Amino acid sequence: MEEFKSGFVTLIGRTNVGKSTLLNLLVGEKVAAIANKVQTTRTAIKGIVNRENSQIVFIDTPGIHKPKTKLNETMVETSFASIPDSDVVLFLIEATSDSIGKGDSIILDKLKETKGKAILIINKIDLVKREKLLGLIDLYRKEYDFEAVIPISATNKKYKEIILDEIEKNLNTGPAYYDIEEYTDQTLRQLAEETIREKALKLLQDEVPHGIYVEVEKMKSRKNKQKKKIYDIEATIYCIKESHKGIIIGKNGEMLKRIGRAARIDMEENFGAKVNLKTWVKVKEDWQSNDAVIDKFKLK
Question: Is the pLDDT of residue 181 over 70?
């Protein structure tokens, strides 16, 4: 019988390279918020994959970018703080890159400091020709001794087992850290907040910049008349400008209804129960510099 292996795997990369999409593919559940915008992930989210002979705990970090606010600084610190404690680092880059950019160079420097095991994942390979891909692999191979280089498209399920097999190969013998029924250590409240924020970012597109965060004020479970579980959730979407508030609410409250409806459908699927969701929008101009809010996004 094979020895059981376990370990912590950090996903790291620049903003918008597809880390959250990859995490959700590997875990098989909706753990991380996905939106086609930079900086969707603001905190290190853990996703858990239980296999026959291993347990892999993933940490999805905020994307590496040039910090402009206190929140951004915390996000970048969180990303780098998780590297030394990882058993394996999954370094995600885009196949469309022509060279090693500044953000990727900083990540490579951090990897060189720790000298840890790292797997290079090249995402969005459907967008480039084979010659360009081979050139990029060669470029990164010269910079760091990666355990493996895996070119993928994070939206294609066929790469899931290839990546998990490679990670498992590089883990040490160890116990399961979490119950095998679990797929994330986030609370249901955090998952609810993530889901609402993701839907808001997706539906609002570029109309509202990234200055929103969601706080679930109340979350209670009860049984309805048919003895089925139902969650009553009250959440507030905070934005930094009065003009953004109007956009989030929309004409006759239509946009807020759409956000709430999309979030509720996702939550019901994830929680395996009915959800009664109420949402409000409030302006909080300084939240990106507010210590109490920023503390939520620190690596715990």
Answer: no
| Backbone angle region of 44, left / alpha / beta, with phi > 0 → left and psi within -120 to 50 → alpha | beta
Contact assessment for residue 221 and residue 230, using Cβ atoms and an 8 Å cutoff? yes
Tell me the domains of the chain and their CATH numbers. 5-173 (3.40.50.300), 188-297 (3.30.300.20)
CB neighbour class for 184 (10 Å; exposed up to 12, middle 13-18, buried from 19): buried
Residues 6+ apart with CB under 8 A from 235: 192, 193, 196, 214, 215, 216, 217, 277, 278, 279, 280
The pLDDT confidence band at residue 195, using thresholds 50, 70 and 90, is confident
pTM of the full predicted structure?
0.58
**3-class state of residue 149 by DSSP:** strand
Residue 117, Cβ neighbours under 10 Å: how many? 19
User: How much is the average pLDDT of 228-239?
Assistant: 88
Return d(Cα 272, Cα 188) in angstroms, integer: 12
- Round to whole Å and give the CA distance between 101 and 143: 13
Q: State how far the Cα of 114 lies from the Cα of 110, in Å rounded to an integer.
A: 6
